[in-house]
Amino acid sequence: MGMKKLRIEDAIGQVLCHDLTRIVPGEMKGPQFRKGHIIQEGDIPMLRSMGKEHVFVWEKQPGMLHEDEAAARLAALCTNTHLRIGAVAEGKIELFAAQDGLFCADVPRLTQVNEVPDVVIAARHSYSPVKAGDKLAAMKVIPLVVSEETLVQAEIAAGNRPIFELLPYILKTAWVITTGSEVAGGLIKDSFTPVIIKKLKAYGITVIRHVVVGDGLDAVAGVIREALEKAEKEKPDMILCTGGMSVDPDDNTPGAIKQSGAQIVTYGAPVVPGVMFLLGYYAEGLPILGLPGCVMYMQTTIFDLVLPRIAAGLRMTKQDFTVLGNGGLCLGCKECYYPVCSFGKV
Description:
alpha+beta; Molybdenum Cofactor Biosythetic Enzyme, Chain A; 20 strands; about 30% strand
């Protein structure tokens, strides 16, 4: 693009190539219109009041795009259901959550787009739980004007589907099975279940039944089968087991989960706190979780990392857990800011 001088009346729709400063004694001195601003008809009175009869604008040439146009093209690569595109400002467009849910990014494709020169798309970590209105991503190009070929390269890198998506939480009900003869016999108070109920509620999941069962592989497996055999309207969307998750000989919960017919995805994970976590699925896709004791007394654990994904209906794999080792160490900060921290970010 070249630069040319135009009368302000003839510059409507053109792009300013320099800042225009406005001075009001005792009130302000600063740019009224910034470089890159597209002159509108409504700007003419203000320009006249500033003593401007002519302005310097970029002379648009075929195959070149203004940064606002380029940002809109990038936004089109990112938007999806439950996502809201903000207004363009200084060549940048931001993406927001239209509702609560799990923010997911296709990281390999996002990386490929950012490898295109002069293109920038910055986002939250994938698998971040977000609230309606939260900012999720921002996108722009580096120069004020960019070749259309640059945007074509970005579009090819992105492929034929959006880079981002927001998954609503779809699981609604849960059974909690508390194991341990000391709890069943009333020797100690169950302090675990209230923690689970609170954490599930944050994702719209209600505990519809809580069962306390003594130690014993057959007893625990029997309660699990009872949940699985319920009629469709009474059957939970997920099952959570607490107690008996260590490797002690009388801790039978993992064995009971396996005996009940679950396909075990992982028993153990490279996350601290939460090493002895278990996740399995039944044939119809219903998840069952074995929660280690740390979930009861630590503010943030592996349960907080996986619950949003499970609540959103994502089926986790073994690799989803192995990669958590990079970022899987909670620092146990005196004041916890999770999820605004590095814990669980891969």
